[in-house]
Amino acid sequence: MRTICQAAALAAALFFGGATVASAATAPAPEVYSEVTAADIADPGAVITDSAADLAAARTANQAIAWFSSRNGSTAYQGYCEKAVRLAWDRVTHHASAIDHWRSSDGARHTTGTPPRGAFVFWNISAYGHVGIADGSGGVWATSVNGAIGHARQGYFANYLGWKPGNSN
Question: How far apart, in Å, are the Cα atoms of 104 and each of 27, 69, 82, 93, 98?
C-alpha cells in the first residue's frame, strides 16, 4: 500500500509541479483523515455506552420494539431520540438529529395513515425534531414519554410530521 501511495505522490508531483524524481520519491505519504460532522460535536461531553448485548443486531420491527420495551422507564437516552431508534434498529446510517433523518432521502416520507409496526415516526417539537418507533396500532415507543423511554399514543407529542419505514440501513 505504501508503494502505491509513493507512486501516486510521485505522479502528482511530476504532473503538477515538475518536481524531480528524487524529491518526489522522498515525499511522505498523505495523511488519512475523517471529516468531523455535527453528530461528532453535538455534545462532546455526552458518553453513552452500550454493552455487546445492547448492540446485538435488531433488524426486525419486533426486535426494534423489544429494544425499547426492555428499556421502558430508562432516562439514559433523554435528548438522544435519534440515537435510540438507530440502536434499536442496529442501523448503519447515522443522522445528526431526528429532523435531519426526516428531511433526508433515507426512506420515503408518509404523512397519512397509521405507521406500520417498526416505522420511524417523526414530530417537529424542536429544532432537532423527535422520533420514535411505531407499534403498528397507533402507538409509539420513544424517549421523552413522561421523561423516559416509554410507550404512548402517537398523539402524545405535538406537531406530527409523518413516518418512514423502519430499517437497519
Answer: 41, 27, 13, 11, 10
Residue with cell 415516526: 121
Q: For the segment 15-37, what is each residue's pLDDT rounded down to a tens digit?
A: 444 444 444 444 444 444 334 34
Whether 90 contacts 59, CB under 8 Å: yes
Q: What is the model's pTM?
A: 0.67
Nearest to 134 by CA among 70, 68, 79, 57: 68
Q: What share of the chain is helix, strand, coil (3-state, %, to 5)?
A: 30, 15, 55
Positive or negative torsion for Cα 153, 156, 160, 162 = negative
Alpha-carbon gap, residue 41 to 39, rounded angstroms? 6
C-alpha–C-alpha distance, residues 133 and 65, integer Å:
7
Strand runs labelled E in the chain: 120-123, 130-134, 139-145, 148-153, 160-164
Q: What is the pLDDT of residues 42-87, one digit of tens each?
A: 444 444 445 555 444 447 999 999 999 999 999 999 999 999 999 9
Question: What is the DSSP secondary structure assignment for residue 34, as one 8-state letter?
Answer: -
